[in-house]
């Protein structure tokens, strides 16, 4: 699949942290993080902040587990972080994620979303072989892929993968 145009030159793809199972009558959309998820979200957010990772804009799914993961990033990266919540990230295709990324006019963007779409978006950006080398067991909850646009190869490169 073709690489997205380098409007942002850095992309952060963050899969929400581990969520609790749905309670009877509870919608999937409303599932909160479980205790491990809260801990993992804080760990990954702190590790990313310690490495100097800070997007110019963070775009999150409106699902509760994504909003709670976003709150951990917000705490770690500062209150001035520009956060936007977008309904379209819930139950989206990789094309929707790529369109949202492509529509940004900033240098760096973070998406906080869901699997399998987060993993499929990463694969669309770096290719199948690079995906398998980087995360052979799949994109874990609270996993953060950091990609930079490489002008020499005119493509995206995974430069880091942060997880608990």
From TrEMBL:
Cited Pfam families: His_Phos_1
Transmembrane segments: none
Gene3D superfamilies, alphabetized: Phosphoglycerate mutase-like
InterPro entries tied to this protein: His_Pase_superF_clade-1 (IPR013078), His_PPase_superfam (IPR029033)
Protein name in the entry: Phosphohistidine phosphatase
